[in-house]
Amino acid sequence: MVNVIGLGYIGLPTALMLASHGIGVTGTDCNEELVGTLRSGRTTFREKGLEELFADAVKAGIRFTTEIQEADTYIVSVQTPYDKFSKKVDPAAVVSAVRDLLKAAPEGATLVIESTISPGTIDRSVRPVLKDAGREDVQLVHAPERIIPGNMVYELLHNNRTIGADDRAVGERVKELYASFCEGETVVTDIRTAEVTKDVENTFRAVNIAFANELAKICRSDNMDVYEIIRIANKHPRVNILSPGPGVGGHCISVDPWFLVGDYPMLAKMILCARTTNDSMPEFVLGRIRDVMQQEGLTDLSRVGFYGLTYKENVDDVRESPTLQMLESMDRHLAGGQVKVYDPWVTRDLVPNQYHDFDAFLSDVDMVVILVGHSQLREHMDKLKGKVVLDTRHICFLPGTHRL
Ligand SMILES: NC(=O)c1ccc[n+]([C@@H]2O[C@H](COP(=O)([O-])OP(=O)(O)OC[C@H]3O[C@@H](n4cnc5c(N)ncnc54)[C@H](O)[C@@H]3O)[C@@H](O)[C@H]2O)c1
What are the φ/ψ torsions at residue 337 (nearest 5 degrees)? Predict the structure, then answer.
């Protein structure tokens, strides 16, 4: 029996995947409302293929509860934010989940930490909990997750995985468990290597995105077309520049590089610079909005609309999203509460002047700032005809479109 603890964006699909592949699974979350929703037969977020997976798992007998269960394997997939001041990982949720599960764990149980953590977190924060509880019989494993929101179900099935364990045989056993559904290659290594590898992967992405964002700024400063330059440069056989954008959000690329900066402040110089560049993009977009408004003779901020609230296309996750960062910045500068906002994926009211109808949104604005490239917009781009458009995602090719 597997007890998955933390049923958010990562824990829920993992629990469902195991259950639908014949493993006995109980999913536990401390959020009663979330567990209530799952028990009533509904999923808690929108994701391609999740409904079908949920139905399969329910048929296979998955249970949802707020209580930690007696199980031979625990998978902990709770949130791991960073401390805003020190930039170090905040392992409080992991530590609390481990403390709780030790009360139910039988002797020799396997404890898999799936949450992303910084190098050494298991040594510093998890082992002491086991030691204090006199539970060094528990077998520790770190199996970080790589899936991308928007394609989670496919990636759970096909991604390669990393499993770090103290004891190789335990690592191999956990590999077998994931192999119940995972068709990718799984590397078994030690815990520290698994911890740092995960951070390195997301940091690689952050640094490469920062390079594209820096190019966008350079090109804007001297009136050059960054997209054309990247398109041509990428014809070089060993060049693959990513796309610039309005900033980086989500719970991975915007968070994990900070763990390395927090732990190695004197060494992680390029990483810090990359994070700073990415974090400056929402402010850069605000500057572009001011420039485009001036150029187009627009003066009324309440006739400007932000399209997109999520941190990427075709998901409902708004954590750390560039749009929210821009709205917060406007608020700090006493310009809050004026622009109109619309996102087809965000159905709950989150910010002032938020619309839930695309046409109503469009009829109340003269300028649209494209911040997320949802398919909904790509399929209805003609509706932006006649509007002033600032496109930060390079998806609108209507004449006169302004870019980053
Ligand atoms: N979201 C992603 O795209 C993604 C991708 C790869 C890895 N990760 C990593 O996976 C981990 C989980 O991320 P997420 O996005 O699923 O987070 P999330 O916030 O969506 O989910 C975490 C869940 O854990 C629950 N929880 C917290 N403490 C608990 C406790 N003590 N007992 C029971 N439940 C508890 C919360 O109520 C919440 O529902 C993080 O470390 C993250 O970095 C996330």
Answer: 70, 15
Is the pLDDT at 87 greater than 80, yes or no?
Answer: no
Nearest CA to ligand 1 atom 36: 6
The verdict on whether 84 is a catalytic residue reads: no
pTM of the predicted model, to two decimals?
Answer: 0.92
Lowest mean pLDDT among 65-79, 86-100, 371-385: 86-100
| pLDDT band with cut points at 50, 70 and 90 for residue 187 | very high
Closest ligand 1 atom number to CA of residue 28 = 33
pLDDT band for 223, please (50, 70, 90 cuts). Answer: very high
Ligand 1: nearest atom to the Cα of 144: 7
Ligand 1 within 6 A of 8 CB?
A: yes
Q: Which residue has the tokens 């391609």?
A: 48
Q: Residue 5 Cα, ligand 1 centroid: separation in angstroms?
A: 9
For the stretch 309-350, pLDDT in tens is 999 999 999 999 999 999 999 999 999 999 999 999 999 999
What is the whole-number distance in angstroms between the Cα of residue 9 and the centre of ligand 1? 6
- Residue to mutate (ligand 1; options 3, 5, 9; most atoms within 8 A of CB): 9
- Is residue 198 annotated as part of the catalytic site, yes or no? yes
Q: How far does residue 313's CA lie from ligand 1's centre (Å)? A: 20
Confidence band of 360 (pLDDT split at 50, 70, 90): very high
CB of residue 15 inside a 6 A radius of ligand 1: no
Ligand 1 center–CA 334 separation, angstroms: 34
State if residue 9 touches ligand 1 by the CB under 6 angstroms criterion.
yes
